[in-house]
Amino acid sequence: MSHIAFLNIPGHGHVNPTLPVVAELVARGHRVGYAVDDTFAAAVERAGATPVRYETTLPAADQVWPTDLAPAMHLFLAEAKAVLPQLTAAFADDRPDLVVYDIGAWTARLLAQRWGVPAIQFSPTFVTYEGWEEQMGEVYSQPDVLDFFDQLDAWLREQGSAVDGRTYVGHPERAVVSIPRSFQINGDTVDPKYTFVGPCLDRRAHEGDWEAPGSAPVLLISLGSAYTDRPEFYRRCLEAFGGTRWHVVMGIGKHVSPADLGPVPANVELHAWVPQQAVLAKASAFITHCGMGGTMEGLHHGVPMVGVPTLGEQHMNAARLEELGVGRYLPHPEATPERLRAAVTELVSDPAVATRLAELQREIRAAGGTRAAADVIESLL
């Protein structure tokens, strides 16, 4: 039995993709210690791992995160500085044989180096590709970003690392990527050290099941776990699809109540939290904020998507869906009732969309998902 440490940050889009892989490794006889805050301890235990608790400094999922690069990276550096001594102490008497780490877990490579064990990144999102540094040149040359990397370099030197900051956070020695290669930007130029295994999903039975109330086609609408306080958007969706042929399942988060939205049409059901995979298994269309987790779940189930992103990577995901011919990209200001209704109608009535979704589903199945990720991780033991 090998001891595998998973190091992550407390976010649904980061933790959830790893849990099926944890369960698979445990089923193969390995012992997994998962560094996590109290928010995700129960989910880690359900997967069969032992929570290694720490106190996080990062904002909660439903709190405001900075959208500019330098302030966001300073958050992760502050987190690494706070978490490093906690994990050093937590694993002192039970050192792992291998470290698996998220893109935001900046303590991982330092700890693996100190313990003398291999480390592999688990990336739930896009990775670097040939020409990426050149494309990011203007962003990375901004004074506040240059200052950040100076601080990161100094901290890494203090911790005994010879790796510079840009390499440390952007260029792992080995990585598993839980998206299909065709979804990756410039996927044919990515280094072979990255293995694209596609979505790593489980049923998440603890979220409960969902049954369609009749034979009407199902439309899922959800903005994920963060930035859900958008009553005006939900009202637009009610106007677009209320009283239509669709049975609408809409997640509105915990900050908005049904009373905030006015009369709710009979063909619409509202939830603070949606059992997303259970609904997607029966859905014909999905209006989403295009977080990578939900985007991958939509592709896995072969559901066309209308992307209404809020920030950062979500815009890239929505644009990528449109480029691949399986979605529409509607920035929030453009997501009027008329545009939402037209986008959904176009997607579900176009046979080319269905064909492309089927091709992506075949690619996802061939990539191997959870079992393939576990195979790569085991190969480093």
From TrEMBL:
ATP-binding keyword on record: no
InterPro entries: EryCIII-like_C (IPR010610), Glycosyltransferase_28 (IPR050426), UDP_glucos_trans (IPR002213), UDP_glycos_trans_CS (IPR035595), UDPGT_MGT-like (IPR006326)
CDD domains tied to this protein: GT1_Gtf-like
Residue ranges of every copy of the Erythromycin biosynthesis protein CIII-like C-terminal domain listed in the record: 248-366
Keywords: Transferase
GO molecular function annotation: hexosyltransferase activity; UDP-glycosyltransferase activity
Keyword Isomerase: no
NCBIfam families reported for this sequence: MGT
Family membership: Belongs to the UDP-glycosyltransferase family.
Protein name: UDP glycosyltransferase
Organism taxonomic ancestry: Bacteria, Bacillati, Actinomycetota, Actinomycetes, Pseudonocardiales
